[in-house]
Amino acid sequence: MNSDSPQIITLDSLSRRNFLKRGSAAVAGTALLGALAPERFALGASSNDTIKIALIGCGGRGSGAANQALNTYSLGPVKLVAMADAHEDRLQSSLSNLQKTHADRVDVPKERQFIGFEAYKEAIAQCDVAILSTPPGFRPIHFEEAVRQGKNIFMEKPVASDAAGVRQVLAAAVEAKKKNLKIGVGLQRHHQDGYIETLKRIHDGAIGDVVSMNCYWNGSRPWQKKRSELEKQYGRPLTEMEYQLRNWYYFTWIGGDHIVEQHIHNIDVINWVKKGPPVKARAMGGREITTSPDDGEIYDHFACEFDYADGSTCYSYCRHQPNTWNSVSEHVVGTKGRSDVSGNKILGENQWRYKAENAKDPYQQEHDDLFKAIRENREYSEIDYGASSTMTAILGRMAAYSGKEIDYEAALNSKISIMPKSFAWDAAPLVQPGPDGYYPKAIPGKTVVL
Ligand SMILES: NC(=O)c1ccc[n+]([C@@H]2O[C@H](COP(=O)([O-])OP(=O)(O)OC[C@H]3O[C@@H](n4cnc5c(N)ncnc54)[C@H](O)[C@@H]3O)[C@@H](O)[C@H]2O)c1
Question: Going by CA atoms, what residue is nearest to atom 38 of ligand 1?
Fold first, then answer.
């Protein structure tokens, strides 16, 4: 089996021990479904068929993804036919923006606008391609339903917020494979020419064996929705569920914490270099600059060591602390040279630098690639690295929250789910504020994650 040999996906094969070597997104995706004869096609779209799209989660990224999906019209007709969101106001602002850009490609009358926790089911029923772009905690539920309904899927990263969610996605992925569904995952660096060319050279041996890696998502604070401002805006107190959903970034069950929600991009590049996820992790982290209950329960910094099966280690750092050293990047050291992967450079005896000529927007490219595969009815799935990179980031969080060294296998099989038992505006999230309004945070040495 050569280094770009396909990965055959099963629940078990997605565990690290059986994680076969894989190559680029296209190669992995092409091979992924090859083992099974197609049961049926979710959409046998020729270039003349109109592909109907539903958007589930109509926020910033979802609206962007819908725009990019609609921009594939040069490949054949596309139409946004349904939208679903937990909140009416988010759906309406997304709809009005998309109508401005794609007047003749947006056809979402009132009866195909769905609001609430169950809205995703009806929206998915209307479409050929479901865009799943809520915060990641809901992704496994929505992915499972879209697969059940036999729909092609573009889903944003991360694909889950905890290990139970990753397992749910993996189980649904087995069904998706049987149904020959085309699946894109929003780790767009896999569609970015500079990364693709750099990774190709690393995999071809330009820097020898990769022995050490480091990556960062060190930046400023993300957006925040303060309870007091939300209550002023809506003119009433919010239930705990409403508040946590509006301010989702700060609650681990919905957003996964910073390491999962953002740093996944960099961790994913390192997994791409290593052709699979690590075997174990050690980590530390905490909250240094968080000052109010609106900071929820998440950490503001993490430092992790991810050990890979070949003995190499990735040193990964992420934080959101204003006025500190910032970097969003990946770097690897080999026996014959180094690579500034995010800078698309090879350093050492095989020096090389990517020259961007007509470089395409990777956010657009990932949709062009998915819709092309649908129209050509080609096997296409990015679930293997989408799920394993999500799980790697979750592993780092689990190691930091607990203060323990944790195996990838053990983390993937964790029996602890952080998701609420039910979803309704008056249902109780598992994490609740104390009498002072502050939320409990993970305490290394005490917090149990397995
Ligand atoms: N690939 C990238 O570079 C990139 C960039 C930004 C965001 N993202 C990802 O996209 C996802 C969404 O992020 P965003 O920035 O658009 O957030 P956002 O808050 O702008 O949008 C999320 C939307 O989902 C809705 N929502 C929440 N729970 C829902 C539910 N249960 N059912 C239906 N709708 C629900 C919210 O009301 C909101 O409209 C996240 O997973 C994020 O990590 C990816």
Answer: 59
Contact (Cβ atoms closer than 8 angstroms) between residue 159 and residue 390 = yes
Q: Which amino acid is at 416?
A: I
Sheet holding 313-320, edge to edge: 352-353, 345-348, 337-340, 327-334, 210-219, 313-320, 301-307, 280-286, 406-407
For residue 63, give both structure tokens: 């609206």
Ligand 1, pocket-test mutation among 156, 225, 230, most atoms within 8 A of CB: 156
pTM of the predicted structure, to 2 decimals: 0.92
Ligand 1: which residues within 6 Å by Cβ? 56-62, 84-87, 90, 117, 119-120, 133-136, 138, 156-157, 186, 188, 245, 261
Pairing of strands 51-56, 129-132: parallel
Q: Are 26 and 4 in contact (CB under 8 A)?
A: no
| Full strand arrangement of the beta sheet holding 129-132 | 113-115, 78-85, 51-56, 129-132, 152-155, 183-185
Q: Are 389 and 19 in contact (CB under 8 A)?
A: no
How many angstroms does the Cα of residue 70 sit away from the middle of ligand 1?
18
Closest CA to 356 of 215, 205, 197, 200: 197
Domains of the chain by start residue, with CATH: 16-190+363-383 (3.40.50.720), 194-359+391-412 (3.30.360.10)
Bridge-based pairing state of the strands 78-85 and 113-115: parallel
Residue 296, both tokens: 């929820």
CB 99 within 8 A of CB 212: no
- Among protein residues, the one with the nearest Cα to ligand 1's atom 2 is 186
Sign of CA dihedral 158, 161, 167, 172: negative
Q: Mind listing the pLDDT tens digit for each residue in 125-139? A: 999 999 999 999 999
Phi, psi of 418 (to 5 degrees): -100, 5
Q: Identify the H or E element spanning 348.
A: strand 345-348
In contact, 309 and 279? CB cutoff 8 Å? yes
Residue 359 pLDDT greater than 70, yes or no: yes
How far apart are the C-alpha atoms of 428 and 420, rounded to whole Å?
A: 7
Q: Is the pLDDT of residue 357 over 50?
A: yes
In the block, residue with structure tokens 């690590």: 278
pLDDT of residue 60: 98
